[in-house]
Amino acid sequence: MHDTTTLGPTVEASSTPNHMDQKKEGEVVSTHVLVEQEKVDRLRELSKRTRIAQSEYLREAVDDLLNKYEKKEP
Predict the structure, then answer these.
(1) Is the dihedral angle over the CA atoms 54, 31, 25, 74 positive or is it negative?
(2) Is 24 in contact with 74 (CB distance < 8 Å)?
């Protein structure tokens, strides 16, 4: 899956020099994940059908996951 859609300046997470380790709030960075091919295909089809970028769906999924687990912490 390769989606080049971004919301702003991007920084490769693995190539960031030490002096740039502090990120500005809201800065978008690139990351790499491995996902089963069937799920990639399904996400690609959803994106084509709805005209919403795959990256937007992935950011939404990360937000949902973080919200889910933040609610469980005291």
Answers:
(1) positive
(2) no
